[in-house]
Amino acid sequence: MKFEHFALNVTDPKAIADWYIKNLGAKIVHQVDNETQTKFLADDSGHVFLEIYNNPKGEFLKFEKLHVLGFHVAFVSSDSAKDRDRLIKEGAIVVEEVIPNEGSLLVMMRDPWGIPLQLCQRSKALTN
Fold first, then answer.
1. Helix, strand or coil, per DSSP, at residue 26
2. Closest C-alpha among 19, 17, 47 to residue 33
3. Which of 92, 119, 100, 124 is nearest to 108 (CA)?
4. Mean pLDDT on 23-43
């Protein structure tokens, strides 16, 4: 099986999609224009990583109350410090920065809606 997407039920899919497009290089590859405002976001390589939608039948998580290690959306960064500073100016907040033994720089943040993000500046890439 191949991974397709991770989904979040959110209160304002359009605003979140716009922020991810502007600040994280995401793009909408599919959307459903009905009351759910469903948006499928892809990274700059075209791989879908997130579905966001608004469906009152489901629970809206209080992201700001969830620990960032419970789940987070991680992005590769060639300069985590520079991206951190840029995202702070756009409403994100820093939770913590970690430098693991192998020399990577991992910046844990929250987007303006509290969704946990991680900027990964790895000393050795995880993918081929």
1. coil
2. 17
3. 119
4. 97
